[in-house]
Design goal:
The chain is an alpha/beta fold and 409 residues long. The strands form 3 sheets. Strands 1, 2, 5, 6, 7, 8, 9, 10, 11, 14 and 15 form an 11-stranded mixed sheet that branches. Strands 3-4 form a two-stranded antiparallel sheet.
Length: 409
């Protein structure tokens, strides 16, 4: 139960760097149309892999968004996070002067940090010796830059910059962190989300686990074969409802609550009890009943283990007829630390625009999953409450509940 003095928290700005669209409008268009980003990987040499399809971002120009810092001084994931933050600030109708003297938070979740640069450094060392490693690339490696660079680019003076490395649940962790900071009054604005860049290390790790799909990601489908690795960033600008109303801001959605847990059950296998518990924690924090949730944005990776476990956990919380349960990873692949952040943006847009995005590539639902995954075509819907799941290796689980803002209650 929230303290009576806790402030309501709303989303007033969105920044999306994704493989189906850069910027909120293009990302929304991709979600509505069920666009697929799957294509052969070009980010690194894929020689020796039987299949190497991923969801890369092809047309990203960091200089279009990064003006204060030298884009070349940032790794690709940091370029993504800074650009998405710039987009979110602009989308919220703010500028640097609005933020510079305010108490702010930048909170960015990640799985890999700048592992793409680490790939390059290691390859240089192995092939040519340590003296060949590029000093500029080495300076880009610290993962803390994903959040610190946002503060530097925006010239923030009273800011806490936090990078949260809770793997594929990290985006929701970062959003929860920002939610607490706003509702407690610790900060006035929070820029929160996640970012990751496609890299050889992570692709190879999933490949060796046998969880990379040959051609496409098919969450909840009986013939699903695994994930496609992806990349991108999602950043949400959050502020108190009082602040948003005072400045006449557009409100996409209200953050109603969240839940986190870590069961440490297994390095890679999800735990049904723990996932169900995390969803219940989020619902309790939001003071929302399961029957009030209109759809679930699932983690939905397309692996055999995740989809069955997550679906069973959903049925445990919601009963035998759960809300529609979709996975946008069918479109954008698994963007690691950015995954639940981009899914959160999808939730906010779904609430605002009145639709549920589809799970594409769907042929036949696995009876062990038994969810309505909104196959292949988006559907119109009047949404009041939406749940976003983020699950990760090591038993890190994070769930955020979003609601439609309908005026003072």
């Amino acid at each position: 139960m929230l303290d009576a003095s806790a402030r309501r928290v709303v989303i007033t700005g969105l920044g999306a760097v994704s493989s189906i669209g850069i910027g909120t409008a293009d990302f929304l268009s991709g979600l509505r149309s069920g666009r697929s980003a799957a294509k052969p990987i070009t980010a690194f040499d894929t020689t020796g892999f039987d299949h190497a399809v991923g969801c890369e971002i092809e047309t990203f120009d960091p200089s279009a968004w990064i003006h204060r810092l030298d884009p070349e001084s940032l790794g690709r994931a940091s370029q993504f996070s800074v650009s998405a933050a710039r987009m979110a600030v602009a989308d919220a109708g703010l500028d640097g002067d609005d933020l510079r003297l305010r108490r702010c938070l930048t909170s960015v979740g990640t799985t890999d940090g700048e592992s793409r640069d680490l790939d390059q450094l290691v390859e240089s060392e192995v092939r040519h010796g340590p003296e060949s490693m590029d000093a500029t690339v080495a300076r880009r490696v610290p993962a803390g830059r994903l959040s610190a660079a946002v503060a530097q680019e925006l010239g923030l003076r009273h800011v806490e910059a936090v990078t949260l490395p809770t793997a594929c649940a990290a985006g929701n962790y970062a959003i929860g962190y920002g939610y607490d900071a706003i509702r407690s009054g610790d900060v006035e604005y929070a820029l929160c989300g996640g970012a990751d860049a496609l890299c050889r290390k992570t692709f190879t790790g999933f490949y060796r686990l046998g969880t990379i799909a040959p051609e496409r990601c098919q969450p909840f489908d009986i013939n699903r074969q695994g994930i496609l690795t992806g990349e991108g960033a999602g950043v949400l600008l959050m502020e108190s409802l009082e602040s948003a109303l005072a400045r006449g801001a557009r409100i996409y959605a209200e953050v109603l609550g969240y839940g986190l847990n870590c069961d440490a059950y297994h390095p890679v296998a999800p735990n049904q009890d723990s996932v169900a518990r995390c969803m219940q924690l989020a619902l309790d924090d939001a003071e929302v009943k399961p029957s009030e949730v209109d759809f679930i944005s699932a983690h939905g990776t397309g692996t055999k283990a995740n989809d069955v476990t997550e679906a069973a956990a959903i049925r445990r919380v919601f009963g035998d007829e759960p809300p529609r349960t979709v996975s946008i990873k069918s479109m954008i692949g698994h963007s690691m630390g950015a995954a639940s952040a981009l899914a959160s943006i999808a939730c906010a847009l779904a609430i605002t625009e009145g639709f549920i995005p589809p799970t594409i590539n769907h042929v036949e639902t696995d009876p062990e999953c038994a969810v309505d995954c909104v196959p292949n075509q988006a559907v119109e819907a009047d949404l009041r409450v939406v749940q976003n799941n983020g699950l990760a290796f090591g038993g890190n689980n994070s769930v955020v509940i979003y609601g439609k803002y309908e005026g003072q209650q």
